[in-house]
């Protein structure tokens, strides 16, 4: 049997799932940016089995029919394996003249893309990029083009290990980790559970389409997104002063955004307008996402190379992604050679990325590359600051439970009040333990001591039953976290004043909205209670909880089918949906899944304030 060229057939001899045939290694980036990738032949990898398949995402991408049941069948499983169960023939294989059966070699090449990475000795992107990932291709459905890539398909010449040690590695070499080119099923599961939750809650993110599993917990993790380009895909060519390739990358990205109708403006008078529009889009998107990272306590490790995030602010590489339960603003990940950025430093890193795109726009318009410092006060940075402040205000009003039109009203007529409230909110949110900085499992941290979700959830309900403000003692009792010690909770004159200021500003906004919309205060507080209880739910997922849940899933997997794993991921994402306007959907949970889900709920509750 030929595992590569033979495909499942129906009664008239056609492929049962023809859309998969487009994921054969061919990708427009290969032709449009010839210096932006390295190409590899690939061969069928035996011994794989489908561990997970995302039916919902596959339907959205047009890989499955709308009415396809959420159940695996032999034809679909075989199609998935023939499409994604592959390993590249890399430089080590070629140099050592390793031979493989011709009928196992795929007809097309697969690309590893070049992009800037700070781990490499060469800080200009000449040696860096996809170290263990290849791009499978694109599919277009309902006016949207999707990129699909696979992680764990073999070691490329662009991995850090290859360039630090100046040698090529055989795929699977046990002497190294990342450079061996393989990935683990657990990595795919962490991405799966985390990305489905964050995607459900409005974050742009890559998503897991499928996981192919092999012996010893190894796997190929297949990810999809409408555009998998990163800022780092631009920055390497920018640093190398490579005008032609930088222009090709930029034009390629802009074309995809227009093709996918991701931008409001789709026609431009000239290149200058087009490239500066790109810079403005980056300013808006990175301002909004860095504000959201701060407000939702997302640690993404934004840095100067633009490697850990997509061009539209989408989240990728979930190995370093965390969502904290509290504002642990001094947490840093220990990456052996250096510590990561903190949550608060992500804003400045995002702004630096925007500054680089101002430089790119000017370079592509004039043909001359100016110093980055030349763009320190560029108007796109002013746009960034404006969008960031607006996003911070809007995010806070959303947490309070205000609807979109109410947020608009408050930002237009009560902006000084909103701004003052955000300041006092931050006073409590950023309060730190007197314990100071200490080591945690994967880095260092200094504990936050207050849980602001709790006060935002409880306050409107409390005001429904009383007319007076909370005492400083009662207010502190609600917001104190399990990290807070007695010395951390001392009610100083300043803190008492801030407690009263918080409540007065809160009620000032409530009264302004009820007056504008001629609504009784009691009815509006009831509405806020219902909305804020969903938005600020007690048991919200954290990075630690995802780790423990994946550990639990790993132990259960021998007894779980791929269909059951899909159902559990969907049920978990639904359970963590924080949209107060979501429609009530009755989810039928199988009896044996109820016990598993209860275990998930318990883990999330136990980790609600952690890292």
General description of the model:
The protein has 611 residues and is α+β, with helices and mostly antiparallel strands. It is built from 20 helices and 15 strands. Strands 3, 6, 7, 8, 9 and 10 form a six-stranded antiparallel sheet that branches. Strand 9 and strand 10 form a beta hairpin. Helix 10 runs antiparallel to helix 11. The longest helix has 25 residues. The protein is globular and about 80 Å long.
The gyration radius over C-alpha positions equals: 26 Å
Helical coverage, percent range: 40-55%
Largest sheet: 6 strands, antiparallel
Q: What's the average pLDDT?
A: 92
Strand share of the residues?
5-15%
Poorly predicted runs are 1-13
Shape annotation: globular
Helical stretch count? 20
**Would you report the number of β strands?**
15
What is the distance, rounded to the nearest whole angstrom, between the alpha carbons of the first and last residues? Answer: 49 Å
Q: Based on helices, strands and strand pairing, what is the structural class?
A: alpha+beta
Counting structural domains, the number is 4
């Amino acid at each position: 049997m030929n595992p590569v060229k033979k495909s499942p057939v129906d009664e008239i001899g056609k492929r049962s799932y023809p859309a998969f045939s487009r994921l054969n290694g061919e990708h427009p980036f290969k032709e449009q940016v010839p210096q932006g990738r390295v190409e590899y032949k690939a061969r069928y990898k035996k011994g794989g089995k489908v561990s997970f398949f995302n039916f919902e995402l596959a339907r959205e991408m047009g890989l499955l029919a709308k009415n396809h049941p959420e159940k695996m069948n032999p034809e679909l499983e075989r199609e998935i394996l023939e499409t994604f169960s592959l390993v590249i023939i890399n430089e080590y294989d070629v140099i050592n003249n390793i031979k493989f059966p011709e009928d196992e070699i795929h007809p097309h090449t697969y690309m590893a893309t070049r992009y800037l990475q700070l781990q490499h000795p060469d800080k200009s992107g000449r040696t860096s990029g996809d170290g263990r990932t290849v791009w499978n291709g694109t599919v277009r459905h309902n006016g949207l083009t999707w990129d699909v890539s696979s992680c764990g398909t073999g070691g490329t010449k662009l991995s850090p290990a290859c360039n630090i040690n100046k040698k090529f590695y055989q795929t699977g070499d046990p002497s190294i980790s990342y450079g061996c080119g393989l990935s683990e099923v657990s990595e795919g599961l962490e991405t799966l559970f985390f990305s489905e939750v964050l995607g459900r809650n409005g974050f742009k993110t890559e998503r897991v389409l499928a996981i192919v599993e092999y012996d010893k917990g190894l796997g190929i993790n297949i990810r999809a997104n409408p555009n998998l380009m990163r800022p780092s895909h631009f920055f390497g060519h920018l640093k190398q002063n490579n005008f032609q390739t930088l222009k090709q990358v930029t034009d390629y990205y802009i074309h995809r955004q227009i093709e996918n109708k991701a931008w409001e403006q789709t026609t431009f008078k000239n290149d200058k307008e087009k490239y500066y529009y790109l810079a403005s889009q980056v300013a808006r998107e990175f301002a909004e996402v860095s504000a959201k990272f701060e407000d939702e306590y997302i640690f993404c490790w934004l840095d100067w190379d633009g490697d850990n995030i997509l061009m539209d602010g989408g989240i990728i590489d979930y190995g370093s992604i965390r969502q904290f339960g509290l504002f642990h603003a001094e947490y840093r990940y220990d990456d052996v050679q250096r510590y990561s950025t903190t949550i608060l430093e992500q804003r400045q890193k995002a702004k630096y990325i925007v500054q680089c795109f101002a430089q790119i726009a000017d370079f592509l318009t004039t043909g001359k590359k100016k110093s980055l410092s030349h763009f320190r006060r560029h108007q796109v940075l002013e746009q960034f600051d404006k969008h960031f402040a607006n996003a911070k205000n809007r995010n806070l009003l959303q947490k309070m439970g205000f609807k979109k039109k109410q947020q608009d009203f408050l930002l237009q007529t009560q902006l000084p009040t909103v701004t003052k409230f955000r300041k006092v909110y931050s006073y409590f949110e950023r309060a730190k333990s007197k314990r100071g900085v200490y080591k945690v499992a994967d880095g260092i941290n200094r504990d936050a001591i207050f849980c602001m979700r709790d006060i935002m959830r409880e306050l409107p309900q409390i005001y429904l039953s009383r007319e007076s403000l909370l005492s400083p003692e009662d207010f502190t009792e609600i917001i104190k976290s399990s990290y807070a010690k007695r010395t951390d909770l001392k009610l100083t004159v300043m803190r008492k004043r801030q407690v009263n200021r918080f409540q007065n500003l809160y009620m000032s906004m409530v009264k302004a909205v009820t007056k504008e919309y001629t609504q009784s205060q009691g009815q509006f507080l009831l509405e806020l209670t219902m909305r804020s209880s969903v938005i600020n739910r007690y048991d919200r997922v954290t990075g630690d909880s995802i780790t423990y849940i994946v550990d639990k899933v790993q132990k259960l997997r021998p007894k779980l089918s791929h269909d059951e794993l899909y159902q559990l991921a969907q049920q978990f994402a639904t359970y963590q949906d924080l949209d107060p306007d979501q429609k009530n959907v009755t989810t039928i949970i199988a009896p044996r899944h109820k016990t598993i889900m209860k275990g998930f709920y318990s883990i999330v509750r136990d980790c609600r304030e952690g890292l």
